Each structure stands twice: as structure tokens, then as C-alpha cells.
Amino acid sequence: MEDKELYTPMMQQYINIKQDYADAIVFFRLGDFYEMFFDGAIVASKVLEITLTSKDAGKKVPMCGIPYHASKVYIQRLVSKGFKIAIAEQVSLPGKGLVEREVIKLITPGMIIDEGILNANEYNFIGSIILSEHGYVLSYADISTGDTFVIDGLSRVEIIDEIKNLKLKEVILSNTSDQQLMNFFKSESILVTEYKIEDEIHSKLIQSLSSKEVKLSASLLLDYLTRESKLELSHLMPFKELTFKSYMHIDHQVFEHLELIESNSKNPKSSLIYWLDQTLTAMGSRLLKYTVTHPLKDATLIEYRYDMIESFKPFEPRNQLESLLDQMYDINRLVGRIASNNGNAKDLVQLKNTLSLIPELKNVLSMYPGNLILELNKEIDTHETLYEKLQLALKDDAPLSIKEGGMIKDGYHHELDELREIALHGEDWLENFLETEREKTGIKNLKIGYNRVFGYYIEVSKGNIPLIQDEFGYIRKQTLTNGERYITESLKVVEQKLLTSKERADKLEYELFVELKEFTKGFVESLQKLSYLIAQMDMYLALAKVTDLYHYVRPKLNLNGFVEIESGRHPVVERHVEFISNHITMKPHEIFILTGPNMSGKSTYMRMFALIVIMAQSGIYVPANRASLPIYDAIFTRIGSSDDISGGKSTFMVEMVEANEALTKATKNSLILFDEIGRGTATYDGLALAQGMIEYIHKHIQAQTMFSTHYHELTQLSEKFEHITNLHVKAKEEKDHMVFLHQVERGASDKSYGIQVAALAHLPEAIIKRSKQILKVLEKESSKLENNLFMFEEKVELEHIIPKDIQNILDDLTLIDLDKLTPIDALIKLKYIQNQIKQTKKDS
Ligand code: ADP
């Protein structure tokens, strides 16, 4: 925008605003529209698929616009694509000269508070990242619900996983210029803002945090939010400090492979959450998702959740409880909107309606036996004072607008009642006036109308104009093609009263609304607590319900490392097909080599195991007749063949990257599930890799592992290694025809049945026959080699290879961009690296 002076004053105003919000699309309010200009218009018109026009503003300027009342849909579309939007509203009344405009709100993917833009059942977190000497510190907050968290000591891989698991769309960075993190943000279209603060801020929200770094990270987020969102954020809750170590580690790949929350096929019914989420409130639904994606490691906490599910099982009062929950609104988000001054009277009405249900809720809860629910019930506050006040004040059908009246009940405020009385009388008076004038003039179709220019007027049709006599005192105001409009003295006097009383009433109602809102703000903290209690109740009730519905059992947690699952089922597959249940009995350090034809059920068996473990550690009952499980510190999987084509990796490469994750991070308390590792390459190197991995796990990691493969040659390993056991999925061959029994048994399968499965897929008969001939020859040829190949002695001394964690540290050092680091940040980085080396030494 070369020379501002060339543009009209309004366009200069736009340019000035845009300078302050260079990286945002400015929504410039013009009457009933938001207009966008210049590049903003070009980008927005493309994303929103709206017409790009131009405006003559001194010079021609590209322009597009959207109606103000429909703006939410457009905002959502832009924000979901990672754009920032600055809403510039008219802040002075229209009059002579240019209306003043100011940015009153900045909406970014992580700073959304409006209903209709947010997904009700999901959190919408924004995060901040700093690097401390213990690793990365991640703080994250949802400004619509007020929830805030902070975790310290994450490695790069862990922070990337956590960001993916939490679905962060926006992060604030302070002192890190980690290129790999940056690449990750770019590939995931995560909005990144670099932002610095001098020191931790003074806020009660961070008071109880443990260390300076953690406080600094939370401060960074708080400071940014307060400054940028332009919202009052008094509803943010004190930061909850999470220790990464208290959660079971699940890589994001595991989330995806197991379809915990989202399905890979876009069919929602193939995700676990679809079947578990029988919650009735958005609060409960969000909590359940967080729970399933954050399995625990602490047996006491897990057992508490089992106990809660147990407590909510009795059937009788459940229907009543469900019907109450069903009527409740999202308290957290209502409170968020009210506290940040984005709420309206409808929000207060919804809050009031929700509060009206609490006494009955307490009553129903008191019918439940058991101490846990009794304790929960004790915590629930009815908020009587708040309820009474809102109940007295608010009309149930309050409108969305807070400036046009219609919110407050009659009888709540004396002056408002008086003003309404005047308005009401005014209307009576107008009706009488109409009758009298019709009689006086003899004009039956004489009308009284109103418009903004003349106020109230009398309208007489053309043919009747001669009937108007001077003594009526009609003053002509406007001539229409088919009539005339008049005013009279008395009409104007009444009009004055009517209009001022309506205006005053609206203003008074607004003031009363603000008073109610401020009053409600006094209860923010206890309403948030109420919301959390309801969320928990809703979640446990839902889990109790699915326990009944799907016949889940309470797992037993053991410390001896044994797995005993009797008649386990896959919680999602069993909802779609008649499921054949299977047992899993596994000793500590045991490695299962699972063979069986394609499509026989190998990966289903492994996923079933993983899902049962995740459910158990999330505190949820599991699909089995009986289950005794150890507590795992992590699950690693390589299941399915999801090509990361967009990321430029082939199936085989993805396979190896994921295998690498497991092999470098797993401990003897982890669970490793590898499905058909090595099949993405030629037979022999695939086989060799698979065997290498199994040996490595057996010798170095000693984690319980399930390894499915169609290389049934691998089953020979069980003869050599103490902890390796063969399993196979049974299948029957009936006259060139396979029957899958989906039953897993001990021992190796006799062959891989590939050709039989191909026959099932109706490959031409000629190919099948020929393949069988070739197979016979190959089997004969390879049998000699096979026996030798798999008993090769380990020649490579694994100890001589640079250990992975040291390699990581070396990589880290190489990647530092020294030009971008301040001396302080360099010291922090150095200390971090030193700590990592110390840790590595300690571990080895
Ligand atoms: P594999 O990994 O051996 O190729 P899958 O685990 O993908 O086979 O299973 C193939 C299909 O067989 C699944 O989609 C499922 O419909 C069915 N299936 C697998 N296991 C069972 C089971 N235990 N009971 C019923 N059907 C099953």
C-alpha cells in the first residue's frame, strides 16, 4: 500500500488497522457487513468461495464481504484453515464524518469462545512451549471452558505426540528454534507465534506451580492470551501441573492405528469412542475423550475410576439421572462466555435452567447406595442464590441481542415496569387515536404508521385526501404516489413519550443484564467445580451403562507382570460382526510370534489386546469374561499399513520409523505390538529385519511383545529363545476353500495360506493353479537355506553401535541454529543436553 494518502479516509482507517494486525485477516465492519480488502479479500474470497469484487476507494481496491449475522460460519471456515481474524467494529455512533473503528476481538484457531464456531464435544486448546533444562515445557488452555494444564520435561518426540493427541491448532513459542519442531508445525498447519516475556507474571493461576520454568511457560501463555484475545479471562482456572510420568505413554500413531477417537475410514462407527461415548452432556463427552486419551499408571487412581463405575451401576435411578443430565447445558462454556463478556441473556437463561435441575439431581443421587456417590453429592452446590436471582429476573424467551430489551421479567425492577407501562398505555392511546380520527374524518381505511424519519404518521389514500379539513390540524409530511402522510401535534407528544420510554427501558434492561452478568461472575469458580462434578457423573454413568450393555468386566491389576484375559473381545469389531472371543495368557518378558493366513484375525487379536490395556488403564471396564493385567508404562504399535504418502514416506519407511520409536523408547514394562513388520520389502531382508528386531527385544528390551507375521519361518525362533512362544490363528482348508475360525491357539501355523486367500478373492483359476506349482518348487528349494538362515549366530556386537539416545543428542547438537539463539537460551540448551547425557548414563 504505497501511498496511504491516495485512498479515501475510510480506506486509510482500514490500512492503519491492518498495520497493527499484519498477520490477520481484518473483518472491517461496514453497516450490516464485514468487508475485507486488498490481500485479505483475495485470500478470504478463495477460502470462503465468495465473489471477489472491487471498491473505488481513491484507487481500485479488491474487496469481498459477508453479512454480519451469518459471520460465524465464515469465521469457522477461516479459523479451521489456520487463519487469524481481527474483528474491527464500529465503536462510535454513525453521524457526520468517519465512524471510528477498533479491533475488539482477535479470533485464532486456539482463541475461540463463540458458540457455533466450537465443536461442543471437543476441547479447543492453545499451547505455549518453552525449552527448560529438563526438556520442553508445554502449557495449554481452552479459553472457552477455562481449563488450563502444564507439563514439564518432554522430549521432542513426546511433545509432538502430545500436541497431536491434544489436537493443538495453535502454539506460542518463546526460546526454541528447533527446526524439526518447526517442520512439524508446518506440516500439520499449526499456527505458530513467537512471543517473549521478560519474567513470570503475577497471577494466582500459577502460584502453586512447582518450578520457575513451569511458571514461566504458563506465564507466557497467560500473558499472550490476555494481550491478544482482548477478552476478560477471569474464568481461567489455576494451572494443573501434570507429570508426564504418571500417564501411560501412547504415541500418536497408536491413537491412529487403534482408532481410539477418530476412525481411519471416516466411518465414525469404527472408532472406540463412538461406542463408549454414551454421555449426555458436552462436559461429560469432553472429559471422556480426555480420559481415554490419557491412560494412567497409578493403580489407586485407576481403581477409583472402577469404583465409580461400579457405584453408578444400579439400574433404578439411572433413568432419572439420565433424563436430568440430558436437559443440562454446557456450564463450562456458558461460564466462559459470560465471564469473558461474550455472553447474552440466553446464556444466563440456559445457566438458570441447568441450575433449576440441581436440587432434583441431588435428590436422585442420594438414592444411590455407597460412599463414593455420597461424597460426590456432598460436593455439589445447588447455587440457590444465583438461581433465585436469575429466575426472578430473566424471561425464558430472552433474545440474543442484549441491546434491544425483552430480557427482563415484569416485576423485577420498578422503574422498568413504569417505563413499560407508559409504552403499553401509549399503544392503547394510539389505538384510540386511530378510532377517533377514522370517525372524525369518515375515512375507514385511515392508517397509523411509523418510520424512522417521521416517527408516527397518519396515512390517507389518494381518493380520500379531499376529506381532510384544516381544523383537523393535519400537517402534511410526505406525498406518496397513492396517498399522503400527515402528523398532528398530539401524535407527536405521545410519540415523544413512547419513544423515550422504549429507549430508556432498553437501556435499563441492558444495565440490569450487566448487573446480572457481574453477579454471576462472582460464582465462576464454584460453577466450574459444578461443571466438573457433572462431567464426572455423566462419564461414569455412561461407562456404567456400556459396561451393562456390552458385558464388560472390571479388570484386576497385578504387580507380577502376568496377563490373563479370558474370552477377550475387540470392543469395536464385536459391535459389527459375531465375534469369536480369544484368551491371552502371557508371562513377563514373553514374546508371541503370531502366525496365520491373511484375514484370519491376527491384527484384530493384537488390537484387541492394545484396546483392552488402554481401556483398563483409563479406568474403564473391558470386553472380556475376566482380565488380570499388569500396568504398562507405554504401548508401541506398528499395525496396519497406513502409507504416509503426503509426508513422502512409503509403507516400508513408515513401518521402520514406527518400529524405531518402539525399539528406542520401550522399557521392560512396555507393551510392543508389531503387525507384519518387514513385509514392505523383499522376502529375505524383511525376514532378516523381523528376526533382528525380535532378538533385540528379547535380549535388550525384554518388553512383552506380540509379533504377527506371515513369515512362518520365524516360528523356529521359539526353539532358541527362552521367552518366545508361538501362537497361530486357526483356519481350515476345505476343498480349495478357506474357513477362518478366528481362534488363537498355541503353536505355529503349518503354512501361510496366501494362495488360498487369493482364491477367496476370486483370482482366475489358472493363476491359482500355476501359483501352487511354483510354490511347491520354491518350498523345496528354500528348505535347505531356511534351516540355516534363521539360526545364524548374532555376529554384530550391538554395543558397538551408537546408542539411539546418544545419537539423538548428537542430532540435536548438529541442528542448533546458533545464529538464532540468545546467550541465555544457549545456556539453557546446553544444560538440557548435559542433563540428557547424565540421564542416559544413569539408565545404562
Ligand atoms: P489379519 O490381520 O490376519 O489379516 P484381520 O485381523 O484384519 O486379519 O481380520 C480380518 C477380518 O476378520 C476382520 O475385519 C474381522 O471382520 C474378522 N475377524 C477377525 N477376528 C475376528 C474374531 N475374533 N471374530 C470374528 N471376526 C473376526
From TrEMBL:
Source domain of life: Bacteria
Q: Which GO terms describe its biological process?
A: mismatch repair
GO molecular function, a single term:
ATP binding
> Keywords assigned by UniProt?
ATP-binding, Coiled coil, DNA damage, DNA repair, DNA-binding, Nucleotide-binding
Q: Name one GO cellular component term.
A: cytosol
Sites where the protein binds ATP: G596, P597, N598, M599, S600, G601, K602, S603
Q: Which PROSITE patterns match?
A: DNA_MISMATCH_REPAIR_2
Biological role: This protein is involved in the repair of mismatches in DNA. It is possible that it carries out the mismatch recognition step. This protein has a weak ATPase activity.
**PANTHER family, alphabetized:** DNA MISMATCH REPAIR PROTEIN MSH1, MITOCHONDRIAL, DNA MISMATCH REPAIR PROTEIN MUTS FAMILY MEMBER
Q: Which HAMAP family match?
A: MutS (MF_00096)
**What does the sequence similarity comment in the record state about its family?**
Belongs to the DNA mismatch repair MutS family.
Q: What is this protein called?
A: DNA mismatch repair protein MutS
Organism name: Acholeplasma oculi
Lineage summary: Bacteria, Bacillati, Mycoplasmatota, Mollicutes, Acholeplasmatales
The gene it comes from is: mutS
